[in-house]
């Protein structure tokens, strides 16, 4: 780990060049803007690299997600996003769609967002306002499709477009 001046107290702080994160032991500051920008860069770089999935994570009720979605949820603190998409699956209007495209559009200035589900042809099947979010990207698309991961039972699989 390298060092850099803390943006708050100006005393030498830890700096991780691989992630761009700044940590100050003196004043306890974790530079959120540096870390936020670093996270955006990390996500933009890493998410397209997920192609297929080795593991599937069971979210309950026959809803699974892939390695890419797990990475997104862990890195961006976005388990809530997967929960929101899963919660819409109880709607008959949504669940009957074999293929769904979910788009989270974030207003980075207002720290709010809109989650829109469509049928893959641009026809809206669900819409939800998110009053507050710190999700780092201005927009992300997530797919949900009917599938079978164990060779026997049909389920819903939540995945990144690059994993489709």
Write up this protein.
- The protein is of the alpha+beta class.
- It has 2 domains: 2-47, no CATH class; 51-163, Roll (Nuclear Transport Factor 2, Chain: A).
- Helices cover 23% and strands 34% of the residues.
- The chain is built from 4 helices and 10 strands.
- The strands form 2 sheets. It has a 7-stranded mixed β-sheet with strand order 4-5-10-9-6-7-8. Strands 1-2-3 form a 3-stranded antiparallel β-sheet.
- The longest helix has 15 residues, at 32-46.
- The chain is elongated, with a radius of gyration of 18 Å.
- The relative contact order is 0.15.
- The model has no long low-confidence stretch (mean pLDDT 89).
Q: Can you describe this structure in just a few lines?
A:
With 164 residues, the protein is an alpha+beta fold.
Order of helices and strands: EEEHEEHHHEEEEE
Subunit arrangement of the protein:
single chain
Give the biggest sheet.
7 strands, mixed
User: What share of residues is helical?
Assistant: 10-25%
Under CATH, the homologous superfamily of the largest domain reads enterococcus faecalis protein
Radius of gyration: 18 Å
Give the strand order of the largest sheet, numbering strands 1, 2, ... along the chain: 4-5-10-9-6-7-8
How many beta strands in the DSSP annotation? 10
Q: Report the top-level CATH class of the largest domain.
A: Alpha Beta
Backbone shape:
elongated
Percentage of residues in strands: 25-35%
Return the structural class: alpha+beta
- What is the mean pLDDT? 89
CATH architecture of the largest domain: Roll
The rounded distance between the terminal residues' Cα atoms is 37 Å
Separate helix tally? 4
In total, the number of domains comes to 2
**What is the fold-level CATH name, i.e. the topology of the largest domain?**
Nuclear Transport Factor 2, Chain: A
Q: Give unreliable regions as ranges.
A: none
């Amino acid at each position: 780990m390298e060092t850099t001046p803390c943006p708050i107290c100006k005393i030498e702080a830890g700096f991780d060049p691989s992630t761009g994160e700044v940590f100050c032991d003196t004043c306890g500051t974790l530079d959120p803007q540096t870390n936020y920008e670093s996270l955006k860069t990390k996500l933009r770089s890493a998410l397209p690299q997920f192609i297929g999935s080795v593991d599937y994570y069971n979210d309950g009720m026959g809803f699974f997600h892939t390695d890419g979605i797990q990475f997104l949820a862990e890195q961006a603190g976005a388990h809530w996003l997967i929960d929101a998409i899963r919660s819409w699956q109880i709607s008959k209007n949504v669940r009957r769609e074999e293929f769904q495209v979910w788009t989270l559009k974030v207003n980075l200035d207002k720290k709010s967002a809109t989650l829109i589900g469509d049928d893959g042809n641009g026809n809206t099947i669900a819409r939800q306002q998110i009053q507050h979010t710190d999700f780092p990207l201005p927009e992300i698309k997530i797919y949900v499709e009917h599938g079978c991961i164990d060779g026997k039972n049909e389920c819903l699989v939540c995945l990144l477009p690059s994993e489709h």
